[in-house]
Design goal:
The protein is α+β, with helices and mostly antiparallel strands. Helix content is 31%, strand content 15%.
Amino acid sequence: MAMSGSGWRESLDDSTQAVTARRPQPEITVPGLTILCHPDLNRVGEVAAMPGLLSGKAQDLSRLDPLFSPVGSENRQPLAHPRISRKPFGLYLDPDGRLVLERRESPIRLVAGGQRLKSAICFSNEELQSGAVLFLADRITILLHMLSAVIHRPPRYGLVGESSGIVQVRLEIERVADTPYAVLLLGESGTGKELAARAIHEGSQRRGNPFLSVNMGAIPPSLAASELFGAAKGAFTGATREQPGYFQRAAGGTLFLDEIGETPLEVQVLLLRALESGQIQPVGAKRPLEIDVRVISATDLDLTACVESGEFRSPLLYRLSNYTIEIPPLRERREDIGRLFFHFLQQEMKVLSEEERLLSRGVDERPWMSAELISRLAAYYWPGNVRELQNVVRELAVASRGFPEVQGVPKVERLLRSSPQAPPGPAPTVSSPLPVRAPAGKYRDPDAVGIEELKAALKSHRYVVNKAAAQLDISRPSLYKLMERHVSESAQLLKTKDLR
């Protein structure tokens, strides 16, 4: 019996019951790059390891170097986009162990860590652990970070991502899936705990049997017994037939107890009794029933603190946590943001019957998805984690239906402006002041300026074109062309505003 008291006692003696948390083993990491956005969406998620940096060798960053490959593949190729110059940027470690990115002779525009690169910028090890977003030539977004040298990559189990954090989760699933033990999933809201629970179920011998999910915080104490364990015919008014509970309906399969930390104390007592005995007593039934159910539970609460405060029963915690898996927040797996974004985007565009918009376009054509937007999303802190990212993708997809380019969404703009854009920590060190505008001949690509950004720049400078153009890092003639293209009121503006 997967969840009986005997099964628990065989694995851990009652005198030594404890939450068994599995921590990742120490990682071997090297500096590397991950593609977050590329005009060819098939290249999103490709990585380039740069171990030579650790031994004092410099690394070029250009159209031709370094070579990127899909994770687990030997098929390597450079960024190879005509807008990326053959003249390289340079990467090297300084005497203090900081990673330096310098311009050298490259003529292209590069924004690193939210700052326009003029000469050089330094990243500490802490900043590399979090990841620094690089936005190149208004077309490509890559993440400069520490890559984990993973030797064994387990099955994906439907979990999108190749960061060390999500690979560790898949390793944990691989270890525990085919065992009979109860599993406790810990993680912030929106990290994908139910997906992990389903992955455990699908990796077990119970995969052909039911997987049922129940929100434990939503079960009123007065209905808990009948909801969980069912009710016999005639047990109460209206019970004209036998009503199976969650445990009965999940027989032979897996029962996922979501929000287990929100379970009322009265319900905890009932649940503990069932887990200890391996039996349930339906309301109004004359005798208990043996059950064969594997229990997986999840919470975003600190259950140890809840035990100390008396809000959660420690015996129940021990019964639920034969094995514990921690799901990392999205901000700790920043290199997966591009993979996740385009995974969700392809799903949404299929629903909207607009998948063709994601196909690669000509070199001189602007891609449907803005690499600059991906840069901003990659720098965002994501307090709502993967669920929040999926909602943002859906907002963008729906708002951009029928348009040749992705459209700005006020809700998304407010989100990016009002919430933290990065974890607390020092900003990258810039070797010299950043320019107010690009040097002659090195303006930003005007096509990268969205309509919302254009309107905001014009409004903030009271429609003084020179100042708005300087803020947008484009030429004055380019600004006039953008106004003609995007702003329907442009003709009226030109008549009524003092444009200097």
